[in-house]
Amino acid sequence: MSSRPQTAVADNAKIFPVFATRLASKDVNEYINTANKLKNWLGSEKAYYPDALRNIAHQTFTTRFLHIELSAVAAMDIYIYQALIRAVIPFLPLFTEEDLQYTC
Predict the structure, then answer these.
(1) For 22-61, how does the pLDDT look when each residue is reduced to its tens digit (9 = 90+)?
(2) Fewer CB atoms inside 10 A, N or C side of the chain?
(3) Can you tell me the distance from the alpha carbon of 6 to that of 100, in angstroms, rounded to the nearest whole number?
(4) What phi-psi label fits residue 97: left (phi over 0), alpha (psi between -120 and 50 degrees) or beta?
(5) Is the CB of residue 48 less than 8 Å from the CB of residue 94?
(6) Is the pTM here over 0.70, yes or no?
(7) CB atoms < 10 A from the CB of 76, how many?
(8) H-helix segments, 1-104
């Protein structure tokens, strides 16, 4: 039995805090690059294993994702947020816990 899936889960657990920190960045380029990486990652069914669902829900569907300061940044945030939502929508049935359904 391979430990590769377990290693991937452990590696992903380490990356969620990095995503959160970078998405809170005031650096627009870092924010855009991180949001795009998250969007691409969310486009894969492999991302939706049980231990990841709570992190996905909180990093994708909570208002802390959007940090609105300037109108141009606000418009960009909305576009990126919509892209993230579109990436997650096909996988919504995997969010079976009641609190996650409410978040999503």
Answers:
(1) 877 777 788 888 888 888 988 988 888 888 888 887 766 6
(2) N
(3) 23
(4) beta
(5) yes
(6) no
(7) 16
(8) 4-23, 28-42, 50-61, 71-88, 98-103
